[in-house]
Each structure stands twice: as structure tokens, then as C-alpha cells.
Amino acid sequence: MGDDRIAAVRAVTPEEIDEFWERGVVCLRGVLPPSLLAGMEGPVEESLADRRVTVAIADIASDRGTDLLIDERAEKAGVPRGQFLSGVDSWRLYPAFERFATRSPLPELVAALLRSDRVWLYEDSVLVKEPGTREETAMHQDLSYFHVDGSQVCTTWSPLDRVDETTGAVRYVVGSHRWDRSFRPNLFVTTTPLPGTEGEIAPQVGDLGDAEIVTFATEPGDVVIHHARTLHGASGNATPDRRRRAISVRYCGDDARYHIRRGAPLKAHHHHVTEGQPLGDDEPACPVVWP
Predict the structure, then answer these.
(1) Is the dihedral angle over the CA atoms 141, 159, 291, 124 positive or is it negative?
(2) Distance CA 98, CA 92 (A)
(3) Are 206 and 155 in contact (CB under 8 A)?
(4) How many helices and strands, by DSSP H and E, does the chain display?
(5) Rounded CA gap, 118 and 243, in Å?
(6) DSSP assigned state of 291
(7) Is 252 helix (H, G, I), strand (E, B) or coil?
(8) C-alpha triplet 215, 219, 290: angle, nearest 5°
(9) Which of 128, 146, 101, 134 is nearest to 249 (CA)?
(10) Residues 160-186: what's their mean pLDDT?
């Protein structure tokens, strides 16, 4: 990718790698330069105003070849529009997001955590809960939305604001990535599954019994990385004046293979892949970002 990468503040430790694989989630404290996150504030605001990538609740824009609008299905299910804003694939439209996903420290950090020689970019998203947002993010499993399978698949979550439980810090079910269970993708702010999908209904906090649930209070520069099979969700933002802005980037490692999941949102290039096909070296829709 050239020599214009931004270096991490520090390397991932062996203990953090072990924690990721044992618990399914790890918080890497102070690994991104704060200036990198500050530099993304403007692009985040620009993307929030762009209907191609961001609407209320959640949207996967049809003008990029996607067959499903999650936001429309949420409306049909009776979920009111609120102040939970989300958008997917800003990296395709905005150079700042492309640089963040491909030239920031994230790919190298992910390669270390996944113990993977190579890393591919799957997608990114902007996730914002404005002050007073009541919508909770329902527990879900990222892999159920992805058209890939494998053990080396993860999601990074980089906050632009100080985040704690009052503003909607993400809750992770520790060890759930090792459960031999697959959950249906849902509409994020309701447990209603996407029509035509397969698997179990994802359990919510009240259904989890004595399962350990962890949240992290984070600052800009911290990165939370979870396995794509880890169950997670989030509360609303109960504060009157604090935003919860984050950029989430999803990556795949060496053992990832295409697996088309019935009913899950498709991107344009998914119409042309075959089951079990490895991610390509020269695939612009899912590029190699490490090394």
C-alpha cells in the first residue's frame, strides 16, 4: 500500500491477542493517534448528510447494487425513525474514509489480532447516536450480515467521542464467538429478523442468563475489536448533550471465504462470486489492505 501509512501509537501485545481469541472482544487502549480521529470529524459530518450512505436507523443504499434497504424494512415493522444514524461503505465515496480503512493503523492491528498474514477490507460504517436517542441496538452477530465465512473475520470500532454506558457504549457477550450457534440478522433497533434469513433469533440481554456481558468506556484513540461471531448490542444515548460517534470497519483474514447467506443484504460484487471462493488479490470491492 506504499509508505504513507499512519503508524500505530503502539503495537498489539501478546496478552491482547490472547484476550481477543478467548473472550471474542478486546479494547486496545491508545493505539490510534488522536489527531487521526479528530481529522475524521469533518468527513463523518459530511457522510451523515449524504443520503447515499446514511439515513436514520440503518441504511444500505440501493444505488450501490444492494438488494435490501434495512431502513425501509424497519419502517414497515413499525420502528419509528429516531436519532440513531448509520451508513455503510463510506470508503467507496469519500477519500478520507478510504484512507482511514486502508492506510490507518487498523489493518496492521487487525493482522496481529487475527494472526493473519493478509487482511482484506470488507466494509465500513458510520454509527452515530445523537443526544437523547432512545433506540437501543439489538443484540446481533455481525457475521450473519456478511457474505463471508471463516474464523478470521472481525469488526473494529473507533470512537470519535468519549463513550460510556450513558451514551450507548457497546455491550459484548464474552465468549459468544465460540458458541456453536448462528443467529438471524435483525433490524438493529428491533429483534425482528430480516425476512428469508436462516438461523436462531438472536437472544437479547434478558435472555442471556448468567452470560458475562462487558462494555468499555473509551476515548478517541482507543479501538474495540470484536470477532464477527461475537454477540453485541448497545443502549440508547440517554445524555442531553453528548454525541456518540464512531467509525466501524470490518476486515477479513486468510481463512475467509465467500458464503452467500440467504436473505442478507447483497453488495453488487456478491452477485458474481462463487460459494467457497477465496477473497481475491485484485478485487476492488474487497481490497487487500495488509501488507
Answers:
(1) positive
(2) 7
(3) no
(4) 6, 14
(5) 35
(6) -
(7) strand
(8) 90
(9) 101
(10) 96
In whole angstroms, what is the distance from residue 219 CA to residue 99 CA?
21
Write the single-letter amino acid at 260.
Answer: I
Alpha helix positions (H), the chain: 14-23, 34-38, 41-48, 70-76, 95-102, 106-114
Alpha-carbon gap, residue 54 to 56, rounded angstroms? 7
If one counts every other C-beta atom within 10 angstroms of the C-beta of residue 240, the result is 7
**Average per-residue pLDDT in the chain?**
89
Q: 83 - beta bridge partners? A: none
Overall average pLDDT of the 9-23 stretch: 98
The type of residue at 201 is I
In angstroms, the CA 67 to CA 10 distance is 41
pLDDT in tens, 242-288: 999 999 999 999 999 999 999 999 999 999 999 999 999 889 999 99
| Distance of alpha carbon 108 from alpha carbon 118, whole angstroms | 9
127 SS3 class: strand
Whole-number pLDDT of residue 262:
95
CA–CA distance, 103 with 290 (Å, rounded to integer) = 9
C-alpha to C-alpha distance for 109 and 10, rounded to whole angstroms: 10
Q: Do 188 and 127 meet the contact criterion of CB atoms below 8 Å apart?
A: no
Give the pairing type, strands 119-129 and 153-159: unpaired
Ramachandran bin of 221, using left for φ above 0, alpha for ψ from -120 to 50, beta for the remaining angles = left
Cell numbers that stand for 102 in this block: 486502508
